[in-house]
Amino acid sequence: MRTLGGPLPRALGLAFAAGVMLESLAPVMHAQQPRTANDSVYTDAQAARGRALYREKCATCHGDALEGKLAPSLAGNAFLAVWGAQSLSELAGKIRNTMPADDPGKLKPSETADLIAYILQAGKFPSGRNELGADEAVLKSIVLSAARPQAAAPATSQAPAFPAMGNLAQVMRGILFPSSNIIFNVQLNDPGTPPKPGQVGAGATTAFSWTDWGAGIYTGWQIIDYAAVAVAESAPLMLTPGRRCENGRPVPVDRPDWIKFSLELAEAGRAAYRASQTRSQQAVSDASNQLADSCMHCHEVYRDKRGFRPGDPAGAAAHCTP
Length: 322
Description:
disordered N terminus, mainly alpha
């Protein structure tokens, strides 16, 4: 397996094989008609249970009226902008695997469904006669609602421009190299492993501590979240006009294949984040293959030149040319 920091073994379950298996099973799975939360998918009684649970588990961070406090709002335009076009299974997975932030993974599937029912009620979605089920297939068949389009920025926007500061190698080594290797590290180490006695900080793990000063500040799974976000958010930096390669050549930001590789990197970061939200080591290991492939596709064309070993300084003169 190719990685930014050297070879690591592939996860035992290959993402491709898993995808083929799921595709072969698709015809026999129970089909669900696509619905939205406007189709009365919960009951008032279920929302009442969810409201009681919300007040106990969620209100401190998300606000008494779901308006957002220490954590984001769970109602209104801001909430719909993030979750509106996604299925309820995505929202359920976020709640079930990562909430409450100080004690995640303890909610039962039925409790998660109750919380979603309350969120829907608070968002003015109509109630009905049947409760919202906790079954994954059911939740996947229901989309919250169409996301509302965001207003376009005015043409006279005074947002500052940020010209490139570092060359391409510096950006990759400073952001993408460490962030990607944190994700690759999941193949060998479970981010959810409890800290060993004597380690610094209550949440520290040797495998996922960024540096000693950061040990205990973030849990292993949070570090994976942040690394995946860093990969996705920094991918557009590959397209910053005026950036130079280490050898002084301009980064080929206008070439279609370079744009394609940058988009692949961004999607790989988003895929790693979605996998991390499941809190499953196997899911992130599978997603790390997509990240490795996105790096390899670009490196094969623009970095790894024939006659030079990867990382050989003598080969840098040919970097950034196809």
